[in-house]
Amino acid sequence: MKKKIVIVGYSGHAYVVIDALRQSGFEIAGYCDTEQKTHNPYGLTWFGKETEVAEELSAYHFFAAVGHNAIREKIMAVMEPVLGPAVNAIHPRSVIDHTAILGNGILVAANTVINAQAKLGHGVICNTSSTIEHECVVGEFTHIAPAAVLCGNVRVGARSFIGANSVIAQGLSIGSNVVIGAGSVIVRDVPDNVTVMGNPGKQMA
Length: 205
Description:
Layout: E1 3-8, H1 12-23, E2 26-32, E3 46-48, H2 50-53, E4 61-64, H3 69-83, E5 89-90, E6 95-96, E7 101-102, E8 107-108, E9 113-114, E10 119-120, E11 125-126, E12 131-132, E13 137-138, E14 143-144, E15 149-150, E16 155-156, E17 161-162, E18 167-168, E19 173-174, E20 179-180, E21 185-186, E22 195-197, E23 202-203
Parallel strand pairs: 1-2, 1-4, 2-3, 5-8, 6-9, 7-10, 8-11, 9-12, 10-13, 11-14, 12-15, 13-16, 14-17, 15-18, 16-19, 17-20, 18-21, 20-22
Antiparallel strand pairs: 22-23
């Protein structure tokens, strides 16, 4: 019997989530969002806004299918006290070492690799073909974009964004609320609350 789940948020990022959930054995019962979507490519039922209907969804699992880190965090704060911990959406074409530790509400998209002793906090996104190498630690509600690479023993704080095709060199620390631009190569530690872009990465004014 398939496990039924409600997704919260229903746009481009959610389509990736839906694929991962369906291929890992979930049935999508419907979605919550601020309004009913006119574009509904999967023909899903709209349950309403999550803050208004959470208590009516107790029969379902849920997943926060929103790419924006702060919004994803707020959704989980609303839904988890009512429905319990968010499930993980793990695509069957991903590779996760058995020693890796994952929190709740994590997306591991297709062709992602999470290697030995890695630790991922709640609400992390590991997008398509990203690589989380050995002993990396990724803070809550951080987004690792498609094809980004965290080399071994990298630390990333909470609510950061590691852009597509960027590379974080081994052993570095990336702060919280950081944005790393697409295609950047980071070769030194990055403090909290900054944007870094380029090869080598430079802090933007």
